[in-house]
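Worked example

This section walks through a single chain of length 704. The input is the sequence exactly as stored; nothing has been trimmed or padded.
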Amino acid sequence: MTVATPISPKFTIAHTVCPHDCPSACALEVDLDAEGRAGRFRGSNANTYTAGVICAKVARYTERLYSPDRLMTPKRRRGAKGAGDWQEISWEAALDEVAEAFVKAEAAHGSEAVWPYFYAGTMGQVQRDSIERLRHAKKYSGFMGTICTNMAWTGYVLGTGALRGPDPREIAKSDCVVLWGTNAVATQVNVMTHAVRARKERGAKIVVIDIYDNPTMKQADLPLVLKPGTDAALACAVMHIAFRDGYADRDYMAKFADDPVGLEAHLKTKTPEWAAGITGLSVEEIETFARLVGETKKTFFRLGYGFTRQRNGTVAMHAALSLATVLGSWQYEGGGAFHNNGEIFRFDKAALMGTAYADPDIRMLDQSQIGRVLTGDAEALRHRGPVTALLIQNTNPMNIAPEQRLVKRGFARDDLFVAVHEQFMTDTAQMADIVLPATMFVEHDDLYRGGGHSHILIGPKIVEPPPTVRTNLFVIEELAKRLGVDHMPGFGLTEKEHIAKLLGPSGTTLERITEEHWLDCQPPFEDAHYLKGFGHKDGKFHFRPDWINGVTPNRPPKSVGLLGPVAALPAFPDHVETIEMTDAEHPFRLATSPARNFLNSSFAETKTSRQKEGRPEVMVNPRDAEALGIVHGDLVRIGNPRGDLRIHASVTESVRPGVLVAEGLWPNKAHLDGEGINILTGADPVAPHGGAAVHDNKVWLQKA
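Given that input, the structure is written out below as tokens.
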């Protein structure tokens, strides 16, 4: 097959991949009509992970692609920041102004005054990471991406020594699937595809562990709704029972774990009664879960991101992961623990990112602390000069970043120049000085990898873009010319030339992957299940994580060092109360969980997604509502020292007493006071390698 397969005189099928910030990276088929216009989007049946299934929001992608609200021309701000007064200008003029602003910022405060700020609005390697090449070439401030993966990857790798695991397709061969901290029905539908297959074909049981009764919980044979931030306590109690009742695989641990004797002694006091008092689960629920996984050799622990977005999230991931080692689940097909396969993909990113001229002395700034950076916090600025110019691609910090009141205050600075390259007039674009219209994924070439599976996938250009929009790569190349660095290695290459270089170590070529659409990189069973030893030098799984010296994909550079309350981290898996504990003034825990029809701040601009989500709401348990005189649909106010906002209450048994859940990142303007839910979230880093604890907030609640 090639990029487009004729199916009739009127239609062809084009093959591509979903670019959005999701581990699934679904292989897609797109119907194209005779004029080259995209029609139906669907999952590829030929891809064994996607298996023909994609989420509803991507299935209706034409609504986004052909939206009347899409940005089409470059714009210059005319009035006050955020006032919405724009003048259309040419691409030449817009890029000239951006370059001039960067030169001016550098002349006044040094090269670090410019901060290229980006993230995962596209997961395409070329369109996402080319901005790093410009950053290295110009010695602009570095970007430390912390908002998503730090806690999860750190906790996992400090246990296994590597960011890889069993083939996720083995879920379908499991006898028990544990979905821990991931609302897969809403956020990773392919996980549910394979879990439900295991249930239908093998009678497998599905366990769901989360903080509220969400759509995935409704698929569970054993639903476990615990208090936010208490996952490690549950894991410890189950390991306690495994040692107590003979489920622990002592022979396996003797060969493959660092200190099972010390772990068993540590867990003596981590009884089900102890965990029940922390998690809110009953002793019976904990015992039932322990018995199920203890008696089921082929238990597959699918560990998500959600439960790690707490101030003890790194510890929680490591504790849940340790359970698979105590039980010896790794030994079996359909068993073990999986989080992300990031390590298995082999790319040569030197030319793409300009790593040859990276300067380790350039400061690294924390993505999650953009509010502090832009308001002059000395520690956030690494005790150096101010940031006075931003280039933003693939992210929307005015909506998704913590401490939103600080973020807004920073963006409103008169001395800050902001250029935003975007597809829609997002909250961030509204605060820009220059807005540049961007292509969408079907309109450019790129290469993707699926952290939630094992494929590298090609995403070719299959639709002609509007004539006035440009790719991320175009913007970087044109700025490089204007800033005098376009002669440096890596510049001047096309998307396809970059892709060919990226694929060098992978064992395939651009021509072959274009023909075959993807490359399956899944390691052999023995490697994926660590049967030749774990990734640490001693070959052991580490029940004793090296929080101080351990090497992980997210470890901050030496210039930044360890982050957060490292001294509170435990020697063995344990519950640590570094979370925001409730108090008399703030008796509720708030989580800002994903919505089914949004993806971070993406898709909130499409009409159908907004209609299906309704409006911003906060879930409140009926007992809490009754005590506060709140009825379903009432306006309530929630707040903490970071801020407060009005929002409608959804009174529901889906949340536990004392827990509030606000689903979805709505645009700020969708909220009654023009401020989104992230005014309540904090940016203090999680130990030991940073990250944003966006689901970990103590708040008060009252009727508005």
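What to look for: The chain is about 30% helix and 15% strand.
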